[in-house]
Design goal:
The chain is of the alpha+beta class. 27% of the residues lie in helices and 35% in strands. Helix 1 packs parallel to helix 6.
């Protein structure tokens, strides 16, 4: 990445200019953050695992006709992606009550929801990513009604795929977050899935034990975050049991 122009740096990734027009390079960092960066550690190897897991999922989404920004993995920490105009929304799909919805509605964590629920959050760190309604989104011009329909259709399709994928390896998909972007191709524009899909952006519970295999291990000071991510990768067949473990675990950031 020497001398390559940095476009943007977020909490978990850095975006660089790509080798060709219309492309970018997405670099996965080892930073683990929670509560809008109020809690922050370096977990050695997390970026490598998230890169591999997200690559696996995005390749499968592309293969079944769900459009994404992903082109290919370049190395252990970087992906080549299409340049898109990110829509400033976090799209959360919930299948089981956990996290903020359990607190807001007084639900017991682990309660199966009557149906999958889609929520929208406005991407703004200074405002702590507030939850917003479709009326807010269209009124403030963050997305058009047609784009919202496309986003929700993509979210439902991703949920169907991920639920089956993880169920097949003994993992319950509790909820997940995606981001979407506008991909311009000549005079055409379409909405695609962007960002990443990994244990950083999903709640994943072991079906038999309900053990958490996601970022909640960091949020809730449970420990074993790296080991949980490695187990997800192992179950998906991304790494084999004999493969040398990635990273050495967390380091506190002062």
């Amino acid at each position: 990445m020497n001398r390559r122009r940095r476009i943007y740096e977020g909490k978990g990734k850095i975006i660089y200019e790509g080798p060709e027009p219309g492309t970018l390079v997405q670099h996965f960092k080892d930073d683990a953050t929670a509560f809008n960066n109020k809690k922050h550690e370096i977990v050695d190897g997390k970026g490598v695992l998230n890169n591999r897991i997200s690559e696996y999922i995005f390749n499968h989404l592309n293969a079944i006709g769900i459009p994404t920004h992903f082109i290919r993995r370049m190395n252990m920490r970087e992906q080549l992606i299409r340049e898109v105009e990110i829509i400033p929304l976090e799209v959360v799909v919930r299948n089981v009550a956990a996290g903020s919805i359990a607190k807001r509605l007084g639900l017991e964590e682990g309660t199966q929801l009557p149906r999958s629920i889609i929520e929208f959050y406005y991407k703004n760190d200074e405002l702590d990513d507030p939850m917003v309604a479709e009326e807010h989104i269209t009124a403030f011009g963050w997305a058009t009604p047609q784009e919202l329909d496309d986003i929700m259709a993509l979210a439902i399709r991703v949920n169907d795929f991920l639920s089956g994928l993880f169920l097949g390896v003994g993992i319950r998909l509790v909820d997940f977050k995606i981001e979407c972007g506008r991909l311009f191709e000549g005079d055409m524009m379409r909405i695609v899935v962007a960002d990443e899909i990994s244990p950083d952006s999903c709640r994943l519970w072991d079906i038999e034990t309900n053990d958490k295999m996601d970022k909640d291990r960091f949020r809730r000071d449970m420990g074993g975050m790296l080991e949980a991510y490695q187990e997800v990768a192992r179950r998906l067949g991304i790494i084999v049991s004999q493969e040398r473990p990635v990273g050495s675990g967390p380091t506190l950031v002062q």
